[in-house]
Amino acid sequence: MKAQLVSRECTGRAGLCNPVPGVILDRPKGPAYKDSMRSPAIKSQLKIRRSFRLTIYILCGLAAFHAAAWYILADQLERGIARWADERRADGWMVKHGSVELGGYPLSWRAAIDSPELARQTGDPGFQWSGPAIVLTWEPWRPGDLGFEVTGSHDIALGTHRKLTKTNVTLAKGQGRLQFGPNGALQRLSLLLDGATLGTRPEQALLINRVRAVIDTTPATQSTSPAKPHLIPSVRLNGNIFGLTLPKGTVAPLGRTIGKLVLRGTIMGRIPPGRPADALSVWQKSGGTMEIGHLELGWASLIVQAGGTMALDSSLQPVGALTGKISGYNETADTLVTANLIKPGAAMVAKFALGALSRTPRGGGRPQIEVPLSLQEGWLYVGPVKLLRLPKIRWH
Predict the structure, then answer these.
(1) Would you state the pLDDT for residue 15?
(2) Who contacts 392 (Cβ-Cβ below 8 Å, separation ≥6)?
(3) 350: burial class by Cβ within 10 Å (0-12, 13-18, 19+)?
(4) CA distance 185 to 367
(5) Which is the most buried residue in 16, 61, 365, 372, by most CB within 10 A?
(6) pLDDT tens, 198-223?
């Protein structure tokens, strides 16, 4: 079949038009055309085009499905927050917050909660908390986990309902993760805080550069007789504090800044709810202890690494027996003498006795000693040497 395109050339005032030869197009037909369409190259190109279009359709469908699923799960997250608040209110808690803004699309679900407030209205210990905002992060592939982020100034009150001790915590940055069990109870708390200031007045504030902590409320238990509940682990702690600066005016002969404090331990026996002094008294009378796997202190030239067992005496003061490695003891003894905390004679005896026990590590470094450490009757003993009086703890 031929198609002839004809154009016309118009001349004169009458607008007479004369036909002008056009272009004749021949459309392919016949067996030759069909054979050409059967060639492998043409077939491959057509197949690629069909596959490309199909891929585009599938991707568009998946994108639409993901968007719909994201909004459905975001709605469930918002409903879950409201349901949790209602359950806490039913348990006697006060829960308030401002607006809830959802975000995180496309790979996570975030809920920014403005002006949250939480307070225990019945029972002890009393607790109150309020902050500027908290951001919760949830991922469907970890349904029992909930991440959180906090910054700014937070008001916290602890104690009893008759007497709450209020303080303020200001954070440059805080983040962590909550892990819940099948019954909704908190099983594990992971926490990382940067630039923390504790205290209501700047001159009495405690400064911390960084805190990293993990609290596990369901540690693995061994087969223990129910008649010996004080041997059942209840809480496992793993904490690191870097750059702890004590408040101004604190008597700190080694300096106000403690470079490093590490604690890994397990609380044996259950500490019941209630006022801190009452709860700890019950725990102490039942034989509760704290097994310390690793305790490390880096304060000025003093470095202590220890492990052992600690508990509370009848006055709720710490007692314990540990085995430790100590370095920097000579410099520390001199500093304590300068601060008039120990007498020169006692320092000389301590330096002589500890020096006789010291060993230089194989890899080099400062000499260190491995000696028993004990806390009893308000004193710290290094071996047989009565070294330092400990401040009394008041459990408000």
Answers:
(1) 47
(2) 317, 378
(3) buried
(4) 48
(5) 372
(6) 988 888 899 999 999 999 988 655 55
Helix (H, G, I), strand (E, B) or coil at 238: strand
Read off the tokens for 330: 């000579």
Query: What per-residue string of b and e applies to 231-242 under the rule 16 or more CB within 10 Å gives b?
Result: eebbbbbbebbb
- Contact status, residue 157 vs residue 126, Cβ threshold 8 Å: yes
- Residue of 195, 106, 111, 103 lying closest to 153 (CA atoms): 195
Assigned token pair, 308: 């052992």
- Report yes or no: 328 and 301 within 8 Å, Cβ to Cβ: yes
Per-residue pLDDT at 387: 74
Least confident of 3-7, 113-117, 127-131: 3-7
Contact 316, 362 (CB under 8 A): no
Q: What is the widest separation between alpha-carbon atoms in the chain? A: 133
Q: What is the pLDDT of residues 3-51, one digit of tens each?
A: 444 444 455 444 455 554 544 445 555 555 555 555 676 667 767 777 7
Q: How far is Cα 235 from Cα 213, in angstroms, rounded to an integer?
A: 13
Q: Which residues contact 189 (CB under 8 A, 6 or more apart)?
A: 176, 177, 178, 179, 213, 214, 215, 217
- Tell me: pLDDT of 295 over 70: yes
